[in-house]
Amino acid sequence: MNVRQWARDLRMGARFAFTGGREGWIRVLLTAVGVGLGVALLLLTTAVPSVLSARDQRSDARADYPDRYGHEQPAKADDTLLIAKLDTTYHDQDIRGRLVQPDGPRATLAPGLTKYPAAGDMVVSPALKELLESGEGKLLRERIPYRVVGTIGESGLVGSRELAYYAGADDLDQHRDNWQVARLDGFGGTEQMSERMDPVLILLVVVVLVALLMPVAVFIAAAVRFGGERRDRRLAALRLVGSDSRMTHRIAAGEALAGALLGLVFGTVFFLIGRQAVGSVEIQGISVFPGDLNPTPVLAACVALAVPAAAVLVTLFALRGVVIEPLGVVRTAKPARRRLWWRLLLPLVGLAMLYPMFGQGRDNGDFNKLLVIGGVLLLLAGVTALLPWFVEAVVGRLGGGGVAWQLAVRRLQLSSGSAARSVNGIAVAVAGAIALQMFFAGIESDYTSQTRYDLDRAQMSVTIPAGTPLAPVTEKFAAVKGVRKVTALGVGSAGDKSWRTGEGPDNMAQIAIGDCAALRDVAALPSCHDGDVFALDVSWNDEDTKALAKPGRTLHLGDSEVSGKALDVKWTVPQGLRHARAVKDANGMERGGFLMTPSALPAQAVRAISGEFYLSLDESVPDVKERVRNAALAADPFANMTVWTSSEESTKFVAVRKGLLVGATCVLLLIGASLLVSQLEQLRERKKLLSALVAFGTRRRTLSLSVLWQTAVPVALGLLLASVVGLTLGMVLLKMSRTPLSVHWSSVLSMAGIGAGVVLLVTLLSLPPLLRLMRPDGLRTE
Amino acid sequence: MTPPPGSLLTAENLYKAYGPTNALDGAGFSIHPGEVVAIMGPSGSGKSTLLHCLAGIVTPDSGTITYDGRVLSSMSDTERSALRRSEFGFVFQFGQLVPELTCVENVALPLRLNGTPRKEAERTALSWMQRLEVDDLRGKRPGEVSGGQGQRVAIARALVTGPRVVFADEPTGALDSLNGERVMELLTEAARSTNAAVVLVTHEARVAAYSDREIVVRDGKSRDMERAV
Questions:
Q1: Are residue A125 and residue A69 in the same domain, yes or no?
Q2: What is the pLDDT of residues A131-188, one digit of tens each?
Q3: Which regions span the lipid bilayer (chain A) (predicted)?
Q4: Quick check: ipTM above 0.90?
Q5: Three-state SS at B20
Q6: What stretches in chain B show pLDDT beneath 70?
């Protein structure tokens, strides 16, 4: 055997693939479509680095206020700009909002804009424009009432579906002291905090990538074997004219190679079509621009080489147990019994590779990435290796039942390999997903902190900057349908020295102003009348309040947030000062300092008092939170709203979890599509037999049930094996990260359920073609 | 037109088109119980379509098919399926045995579809396999037996329910002459022993020789070789 001989046989096989008439073409097309789907997903994966880098670059280029906080701001000049951050949330979607007021005609221009909108106008992202114009955006239009005069270009947006706007303003000077307002002389170029990612999260990312890509590889391996049975019969004719067994195998590999090469072309086309469509899609809040989806050349080249090579190797491997004889009969009735030992070896070696990293935790957690990838790959590959043996071992023992069951079981007994092959992809995906879900659930508490909010008392809080009178705002909130109770507190600070001095006071304490009902939410008051002032006794050591709470002492009221230019109103601690014990407020905090009823506050100090509102909501009222946001922003555009939750998750953890969900969605769609293609392929091969069975009176229901059993049995076995391997891998990952072992049965059941759901859906989708194939027309030969 | 007296299955003025091609163009047919009728004609003449219409597998565009006094075209698909299960038997060119079932399971399949318990169905199947001299193949799968053996298994399957009509579409088309003759002998003998009528589609004169009567189909029209239809 030499290279020329190999090349000649492969070439001959490739030619046969396209010259086999309609049958041959259909087989090549099915293979190409199957491989193409896998290739498209692989190309998508190779484009992930470019997507991330493009998103980062655009995000950096438009960096403005938050990244510049703490940096010295430039003086007003011809090229400077006043900008205010007005981010908001609408129906759980984040909206990036900016108010802009150029200081001069040469004001630095934000990426994606050609000029700044005039006061009252705004430029919006295409997605926000769509939302505002839709019925769904009705409430948002009230919140962002500016006139749309243009759209933000691609360079100003992180993703294609990002919701963002720049609105023109002419009064930002008045809010110069607000922490949300900054002066800029340029966008971007800020120093990025390079933060080392937690090793456990790196481990997670590596495992997510392996677990998502492995099913794609398994699927491609299955796709190149589409139509194998019919091809084997055709190859017998080649034996008759003198080709030896190995030549025949190489010719078969050549046919698969042709399908794989066409699959590469299809995959590229699918990718390009998908790339165009991707701009209008958003999954889990992530959207990308088509132009960002550029496969990394080296990785794309790997795909282009690996797929055809895999096609050849898989075909040669698959044919090693098939005897093709010259007389046109392929005797496949009794294949050699599958051996268990080498199949078990794969997951065991995988475990052995992961073992050295047990207990590394996150302190010194430099997980050897190669060992992790190798170990996880081998463990998951173990599913694909063990499944054919497992299916064969189980179906070999099945019997009895009705005709549909008998037809299905006998079919599985005869060709358990192809049944296992069609389920392999989904089994690997489910095993990986179970392991990851377990791992996620195990380490979730490390990345999730419980908030201190008392959700029984309030579900939302709003803060309003100093200067806005509180009573009208309270009325506005109370008027919102679905708001049950509004607790309003004015908040400021009292110090022993003027707030206008450079260093500010030495001792300072918080003051909270509210009516008696509101004050009772933060302290146990003995009695309360308007004009009363209380000093709070707290469980923690509040030396400042002790020092300041001396009747007759003059204190300076101001705003601790903005020193220097702040108001400074003198206030004498009244002789009638009483003490009250602080209790935890809805915020979960125990306040210190002073409590004042409204008439105890000097009138001049009102401008130094910001507002805090705690709202109890009837969440069954539609859009109650959106209406509260609208009311708050109508009262003050710089109002800040927080929807309270019982826990908060680390953003990186959430990002990895989102990545998994996006990837898992793509992989499940691919596997669903591939299962459908392989199911149709199998049905097509049996068209004549199905027609014959119907001809002699077999009920369609019987045949449909038999097809369902044929799918359900291997799927059930596949999911069982996937659960075992998934649980094992999950435990290994938990051990590696030194997290207490616990089995999350809900993860196992939900993942297995999703896998089963995909199969059920595919079976339902394949029923119409099955019914069509069962028409007696199938018996026609002319 | 009334069916010939005593006929079991009759067809009159059958028309069937596949797209622009007229497969049947006014064909007619009749057969009596226990009679073997060969439908002959060149490839593409419409003989298989005629057989499929007679068996209720395909519905003609127009014309009437009467079986035992019942009009086939007025029966529902379910009724026609039940008729095929209980009263008709089929033999196709390549046997069309279910590859995953053993030979005895294949023969027993029509009985099982009729609700006969598995053991009883396989006992009856085995007795038919004995009559057709293939009982030694009972545990083998179709892929493990020769073409002639497979066709004999298919004949056993066609006869196992005791049908009143057996439809055989080129039953020897894939066999050598020796095997073909043996298969035809067994088919006609077994059918006659149960008084089953046989509708035999073939283009081979030596196969047609086993019939009592021949009908020639050409361009969708039929012609009885003994009496013009």
A1: yes
A2: 999 988 889 998 999 999 999 999 999 999 999 999 999 988 887 777 788 888 888 8
A3: 200-224, 256-278, 298-319, 340-358, 370-391, 423-443, 659-678, 707-733, 745-767
A4: no
A5: coil
A6: 1-3, 95, 226-229
**Domains assigned to chain B:** 1-87+165-170+197-229 (3.40.50.300)
Structurally, chain A folds into a number of domains equal to: 3
What SS3 class is residue B15? strand
| Whole-number Å distance between alpha carbons of A526 and A540 | 21
pLDDT at residue A298 greater than cutoff 90: no
Q: What is the pLDDT of residues B114-171, one digit of tens each?
A: 888 889 999 999 999 998 889 999 999 888 888 888 988 999 999 999 999 999 998 8
- On whether residue A532 sits in a domain, the answer given is yes
Beta strands B21-31; B165-169: pairing state: unpaired
Cβ burial of A57 (10 Å; 0-12, 13-18, 19+) is middle
Q: What is the pLDDT of residue B138?
A: 92
- For residue A413, list chain B residues with Cβ-Cβ distance below 8 A: 100
- Residue A576: both structure tokens together: 């009638």
Biggest CA-to-CA distance, chain A: 116
Reading the block at residue A173, the tokens are 């000077």
CB A341 within 8 A of CB A356: no
Q: Could you tell me what percent of chain A has a pLDDT over 90? A: 13
Q: What is the DSSP string of B91-159?
A: E-TTTT--TTS-HHHHHHHHHHHTT--HHHHHHHHHHHHHHTT-GGGTTS-GGGS-HHHHHHHHHHHHH
- Map tokens 């993703």 to a residue: A159
The verdict on residue A358 lying in a domain is yes
Which residues between 14 and 43 in chain B have a beta carbon less than 8 angstroms from any beta carbon of chain A?
A: 18, 43
**Taking CA atoms, what residue in A is nearest to B21?**
A782
Cβ A89 vs Cβ A95: under 8 Å: yes
Chain A contact probe: residue of B57, B149, B169 with most A CBs at under 10 A: B57
Least confident stretch, A275-279, A588-592, A635-639, B222-226: B222-226
What is the model's pLDDT at position B8? 93
Hey, is the C-beta of B67 within 8 angstroms of any chain A C-beta? Answer: no
Do A636 and A690 lie in one domain? The reply is no
Instruction: Give the C-alpha separation, A329 to A346, whole Å.
Output: 35
Q: List C-alpha distances in Å: A210 to A203, A205, A213, A379, A592.
A: 11, 9, 5, 11, 52
With b for 16 or more beta-carbon neighbours within 10 A and e for fewer, the A552-590 pattern comes to eeebbbbbbbbbeebbbbebebeeebeebebbebbbeeb
pLDDT at residue A576, rounded to an integer? 86
Which residues in chain B are contacts of A399 at CB distance < 8 A? none
The pLDDT value given to residue A676? 79
Better-predicted residue by pLDDT, A52 or A684: A52
Contact A407 B90 (CB under 8 A): no
Task: Name the pTM for this structure.
Answer: 0.64
User: Do residues A559 and A601 both lie within one domain?
Assistant: yes
Question: Domain of A147?
Answer: 64-184
Q: Indicate the residue among A599, A614, A645 that finishes a domain.
A: A645
Residue A697 to residue B113, Cβ atoms within 8 A: yes
What is the dihedral sign for C-alpha A648, A650, A653, A658? positive
Q: Count CA within 13 A, CB hemisphere, residue A511.
A: 31
| Residue A682 sits in the same domain as residue A706 | yes
Give the model's confidence band at A117: pLDDT under 50 very low, under 70 low, under 90 confident, else very high: very high
Mean per-residue pLDDT of chain A: 82
A742 and A593 co-located in one domain: no
Of B174, B226, B215, the residue nearest B46 (C-alpha): B215
Co-location of A625 and A688 in the same domain: no
Is residue A626 in a domain? yes
pLDDT band at A100 (very low <50, low <70, confident <90, very high): very high
Beta carbons of B96 and A689 less than 8 Å apart: yes
Residue A218: inside a domain: no
On whether both A754 and A696 belong to a single domain, the answer is: yes
Beta bridge partner(s), residue B38: B200, B214
